[in-house]
Amino acid sequence: MRREIELRDPRALRALAHPVRIRLLGLLRQEGPLTATEAGRRIGESSGSASYHLRQLERFGLVEDAAGGHGRERPWRATALYTSWPDVADTPELAEASEMFTRFALGRYVERLEQWLSRRASEPREWQEAASFGDSLLYLTVDELAELRDAFRGLAGPYDERTARPAARPVGARPVALLQVAFPDDA
Fold it and tell me: Phi/psi at 40 (nearest 5 deg)?
């Protein structure tokens, strides 16, 4: 599995901006190869629906045949751990699709954060204490902002293998969402 796939096709960004597709892609990244039936069951969708959405993801290179099956028993796998898209687009169509997908992703992040906040009190104390929520206001140059971005990516990098290879996950490891947001805030 590659580390990252960059989507530069506006059609791909619009296709991925679908709740079922984004959940299927995330599931394949976390759990490895699954059939449409298995994946559908895990996200509460029919095998037919999961199969349809997996084929849509395949059109844009986000998932592929994992070999070793036929028809609905065909296992699928993600092609990359992460998806990126242009911050600065080359065409108006790509700029529009990038902004639309960014807003879709933001909505998903907020939804997942709200789910955590709703269940936080029922989580073990050590997980509540280890989790983080907050912000900082920093005065940076554009070069320093880029350095900060790269440093955050570097901090997370050593844990990438655990996403791609479940056997590499230590006992007690859980999926943790690390949101990276840094932007000029002149408001």
Answer: -60, -45
Question: Could you give the CA distance from residue 135 to residue 95 in angstroms, rounded to a whole number?
Answer: 28
Q: Which fold has domain 2-133?
A: Arc Repressor Mutant, subunit A (1.10.10)
CA dihedral over 118, 119, 122, 125, signed as positive or negative: negative
Q: Render each residue's pLDDT in the chain as its tens digit; 187 residues.
A: 898 999 999 999 999 999 999 999 999 999 989 999 999 999 999 999 999 999 999 999 999 999 877 765 889 999 999 999 998 999 999 999 999 999 999 999 999 999 999 999 999 999 999 999 888 999 999 999 999 999 998 999 899 889 888 899 999 999 999 988 888 888 7
Q: Rounded to two decimals, what is the model's pTM?
A: 0.86
